[in-house]
From TrEMBL:
This is PF03932 family protein CutC. The keyword Hydrolase does not apply. Pfam families: CutC (PF03932). Belongs to the CutC family. The gene is cutC. InterPro entries: CutC-like, CutC-like_dom_sf.
Amino acid sequence: MLRKLEIIATTPVEALAAERAGADRIELIAAMSEGGLTPSYGTIVRTVQAVRLPVRVMVRPHSRSFVYTSDELETMTADIRMIRESGAAGLVFGVLTPDGQVDVAAVERLCAGAPMLPVTYHRAIDEARDIAEALRELERIPSVDRVLTSGGHADGAWHARYKLRELQAATPLKLIAAKGLTVEKLEAFLEDAEGVNEVHFGTGARVGGREDSPIDPERVEACARLLRGGQNE
């Protein structure tokens, strides 16, 4: 069992603060208030250079939905080719069909833009009509190794912790529990969602729990201690 702490960063400074406090991986985004959009190339390059941690980069042109036009997919593919040259460790994106299924063809098209980079399928899965079915579809795509999810619960992963345990037991993909997790509930979450060994913190790792606040090193350190305290050597 190897537990991982992923922290959202929007700048190189935030990524470095998260690394120093004990994070295992960075999800780099822009526009946190919109749930994350594609960051600028300059931000990507400088962040990758600033930290030793793996940096996975969000690829999302807008926050209106996870259904994209062919033109938007072309823009995303161009962004992915750019990210491929930056030294980033992976990609984060999600695409759905209008009827709420994983758009396998679109995901494969995007993966082809950087075939050597692993992909975290973004929380688009929480808007899928059937999460278990969506996971089975994603298992067919070699580049996808992780899925960021709240278990489909609008209020976050804490409220779906038992469902997340069931979903993780049924898939070889690594689920990353996201949305609404706090330091105070993390230990109980890990017990109840047994098997889900990766967690994702955004506002929960920031001063005052606010999107516009800096990374709170004490919160990140506390999360890291809880995660490592339960690992087998």
